[in-house]
Amino acid sequence: MATDHTLENLFLGLSDELACWALAGEGLQHLAGQLLATHPRPHETLVEVQQLDALVQHIEQMAVLCSRLSTAAAANGGTLDIGLVKSAAEASTLSGLAQRFHAGGRTAVAASSGECELW
Question: What does pTM read for this prediction?
């Protein structure tokens, strides 16, 4: 019986797509840093701009998660069970990702989740 590669390819494609968007976000971070260096802004604005860093980090880690799920599906005959999904989520460096997945529903991501740094 042939292995179904649907999940493997789906998660690999999602990983690639997310990685491309993370790279685009890094370019925006660089541009924002240049703009802030030449056009100083109030502290409140800088804090809001820092969310771009958190967004890029989340996109990068979601790409890693999708890659792990693709690898897990490939190693498991083209299928995933909840244990493999939880294991992939728990390996993530995203603050609270595993807990949000274990909650079983949509939860708001805290504005402070992830490590933010100003350029």
Answer: 0.78
